[in-house]
């Protein structure tokens, strides 16, 4: 690279720069100022600077910045037609709001349906319990005693399991 051999990138050389008066200016001869919020656009000098809205700015803030730029007659580099952009984005925002409202309403309806289903299930369970309890009350007590196991304390032989011992007998 230092020896200017073939296959290496060329080094910068004197004589290919720009005049100091034209440095940092765009093709129209204005300085570009990056705008991140509405307060930044108020500090722009119309005769020397143009606005460049940062890509990190969201739609709502972008709209507010563009309205302020339109009000102050400031040129914005990355928006071709300010009026058209404002109208289109407001329409898109309105559509998104309507869609979000529809989604919220659908979720509420689904939740109400689930609640109704749960209520009906609970009511059916209560009815079944009443029927079962009613039939148990009518059942004589001597049948209840027969259905119960006679020996509650059944002992099973306890075995020790030793790890590694494979005989289970």
Helices and strands, with pairings:
Layout: E1 31-35, H1 38-41, E2 49-53, H2 59-72, H3 82-138, H4 141-147
Parallel strand pairs: 1-2
Helix pairs in contact: 2-3
How far apart the termini lie comes to 84 Å
- Taken as a percent bin, the fraction of beta residues is 5-15%
The secondary-structure element order is EHEHHH
Structural class: mainly alpha
Could you name the ranges where pLDDT drops below 50 across 5 or more consecutive residues? none
Shape: elongated
Mean pLDDT: 84
What is the β-strand count? 2
Spatial order of strands in the largest sheet: 1-2
Please compute the radius of gyration using only Cα atoms: 41 Å
Counting copies of identical and different chains, the oligomeric state is single chain
Q: Give the count of helical stretches.
A: 4
Sheet bearing the most strands, described? 2 strands, parallel
Question: Helical proportion?
Answer: 40-55%
């Amino acid at each position: 690279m230092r020896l200017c051999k073939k296959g290496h990138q060329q080094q910068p050389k004197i004589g290919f720069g720009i005049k100091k008066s034209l440095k940092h200016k765009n093709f129209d001869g204005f300085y570009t100022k990056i705008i991140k919020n509405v307060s930044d656009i108020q500090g722009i000098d119309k005769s020397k600077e143009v606005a460049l809205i940062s890509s990190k700015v969201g739609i709502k803030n972008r709209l507010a910045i563009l309205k302020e730029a339109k009000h102050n007659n400031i040129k914005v580099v990355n928006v071709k037609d300010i009026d058209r952009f404002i109208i289109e984005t407001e329409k898109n925002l309105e559509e998104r709001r309507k869609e979000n409202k529809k989604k919220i309403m659908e979720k509420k309806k689904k939740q109400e349906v689930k609640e109704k289903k749960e209520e009906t299930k609970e009511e059916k369970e209560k009815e079944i319990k009443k029927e079962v309890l009613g039939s148990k009350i009518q059942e004589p007590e001597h049948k209840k005693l027969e259905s119960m196991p006679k020996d509650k304390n059944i002992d099973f032989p306890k075995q020790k399991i030793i790890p590694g011992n494979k005989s289970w007998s």
